[in-house]
Amino acid sequence: MAVKIDKKIKGYSVLTPEDKAREAAAAIPVASVPRETVEKETPQDNIIQMHERIERPEVLIGSTYKIKSPLVEHAMYVTINDIVLNAGTEHELRRPFEIFVNSKSMEHFQWIVALTRIMSAVFRKGGDVTFLVDEMKAVFDPRGGYFKAGGVYMPSLVAELGAIVEEHMKSIGLIHDPEMSAHQRAILAEKRKQYEDRAKKNSDVTETVTAAPAAPAQGAAEDIAVTGDGASFPPSATLCHKCSTKALVIMDGCATCLNCGYSKCG
Ligand SMILES: [Zn+2]
After folding, report:
1. Number of structural domains found in the chain
2. What does the pLDDT average to over 214-243?
3. Does residue 29 form part of some domain?
4. What is the DSSP track for 39-87?
5. pLDDT score of 231
6. For residue 116, how far is its CA from the centre of ligand 1 (angstroms)?
């Protein structure tokens, strides 16, 4: 629409789409809305989120885990204390607040103090802290890792600390495990029974016990110290690279993990 300007232009401003929307909104008479609706629609800002300025309560609840590693002479005790935010409300959230490691062993003292202080600081900063688990579990010791009881491979002491933090975060509901379905578990139990029955038959008859096939990286894992008896899986089982557990057996020409169900034929 053309407009003829017959006065001097003293100033101008650009009309944005937002201005137009505001004008339109102002034109509509405000209908009264029930208070409940407004409360429901307005984001609640009284939910407390984890923040570094949150003061440490006098008392915190926590758990202490024991690590027995062949890399350290004495056992290590890992304590993780949690803070409960918005207790008693639907937004109740339990989060790790601090971590301590105690041991008679002094050889790892300085880096453990540094690591746990930094981890505690990360916990208190808030946000997603579960990334610590992946970072730590990926650390490997160039001198070699070790097997824990049950045949789970730990590539380093830091990785074991990471596994403990993971276990703790699962127990307080911060990390959710993709649960294996009952059906999957039943299949695994069946496979395991088959394997054990066959192994028993073979050892009864001759010496041709089904030899455990070499896992792809067995060479690299040869000088790994073994702790625990690993009795939960057949002793001939090799390391599964998906779940880092000594639970991989060969059945009908397929490598099958009796722990996580990983399977590869070839
Ligand atoms: Zn596996």
Report:
1. 2
2. 58
3. no
4. HHHSPP--SPPP-TTSPPPS--EEEEEEE--TTSSS-EEEEEEEEEEST
5. 46
6. 30
